[in-house]
Design goal:
Elements: E1 2-7, E2 13-18, H1 25-32, E3 41-45, E4 48-49, E5 61-66
Length: 73
């Protein structure tokens, strides 16, 4: 299954990625950012906030944005 993954952490990047069918947002996040805590990020699919158990679908756009910017007070 192909998704557009937009990572706004640091410099940020967007790229198409292949992943398995039936993967949830939580599983995808853990695979792509294993050392990060989901609570520290706003995760959207197709520009809408979603629950962690949402099952990603072909051509979804998943965006990961930190809620706290490093170095900010």
């Amino acid at each position: 299954m192909r998704l557009l993954y937009v990572n706004n952490n640091g410099g940020g990047f967007a790229d198409y990625v292949e992943t398995r069918d039936g993967i949830t947002v939580e599983q995808f996040f853990k695979e792509k950012m294993p050392d990060a805590r989901a609570e520290d990020y706003l995760i959207r699919v197709n520009r809408q906030p979603v629950a962690r158990d949402y099952h990603l679908q072909e051509n979804d756009r998943i965006t990961v944005t930190p809620t706290k910017i490093e170095g900010a007070h």
